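Chapter summary example.
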Amino acid sequence: MTKVDSAKLPEAYPRKVWTEGDGTRVGVTAQEGGCSRASVELTEQSTDKVVLTLVETSPKVEQMCTMDIRYPTFTVTLNAPLAERPVTLDYQQRKA
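The structure predicted for these 96 residues follows.
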């Protein structure tokens, strides 16, 4: 089981991380709602750890948006299998 450090995520944010195939593909569940859109960035990959930044991007100009919450899934491809490396989940909010 992969060790996940999710301390930087908002309290109710999903914390699901998994590997696919030979372990070079890492999946993560993000959260978006209304007019915001989620994405994931592979911020760091070293022999010691992998850092994924979950980004929630909102429109630059405020507008009327629905109040729904969605949980899209994303995958990133690593240079080498994840193996026993821990995954750190970081979080950023941005304006488009």
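To summarize the output: The chain has a mean pLDDT of 95.
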